[in-house]
Amino acid sequence: MYVVNVKHAERFYLRMLLLHVPGATSYKFLRTVDNIIYDIFKQVAFHHHFLNSDEEWHHCLHDASTYQMPKQLRQTFAFILCFCNPSSIGLPVPTGNAIEVQLHNQDDEREEAEQRISSLNREQLVAFETFTRAIGNNNENDSGFKLPVHLLYTSVSSMRPTSPEADKLRQAVLIIIDEITMLTKDGLRCIDSLLRDLMNNDKPFGDKVIIIGGDFRQTLPVVPRGTRASVIES
């Protein structure tokens, strides 16, 4: 069954009428109550007495909890409180069992790490030692890539080629970019352009070894020709 956000009032009340008024054959039929034709669906729902109880708002929040993120769910709840005049209503009670958070045990993790390292083949071990050596030499870039706050296609890094940060990047054996899903394509393009300039090398990322990581399930959905607001809202 399709769901409708309560913010889209007319569509929301139209859906309510379609669910509760049997035998609807036209918009005129739906907008008619006791031989009176009303202009908007909210008036129709009111005269059908569908708004006399909070049951519909409970259904609305229950449906919203299946597809909205927490922030959106709170906004829907606030919208109902401000504009729908409920008598008594609360946020839906979470279902399921809470996830138990296991605290990290350093000794157990160290033992597991040793077991995994011992299972590496020669090529994997060489790569692992290269990574750990690069991290151990503190060649990471603590100050970031000096990217602008608002990233556009024409954006460039503000890092000066003669700065200490630029020297760190030139000396870096390995560059790790975590939470890559939070970076837009223009941000990645800026980093690529910066490293090419610093290394005087036209290969991707100035021929540096780049490792990216992050939870790709957090990537926002693709909205064809969508604005920033429509992408975030989805």
Automatic annotation (TrEMBL):
GO biological process annotation, one example: telomere maintenance
Top-level division of the source organism's lineage: Eukaryota
Cofactor: Mg(2+)
Classification via Pfam families: PIF1 (PF05970)
Coiled-coil intervals: 96-123
UniProt domain DNA helicase Pif1-like DEAD-box helicase: residue ranges: 142-233
Keywords assigned by UniProt, alphabetized: ATP-binding, Coiled coil, DNA damage, DNA recombination, DNA repair, Helicase, Hydrolase, Nucleotide-binding
Official protein name in the record: ATP-dependent DNA helicase
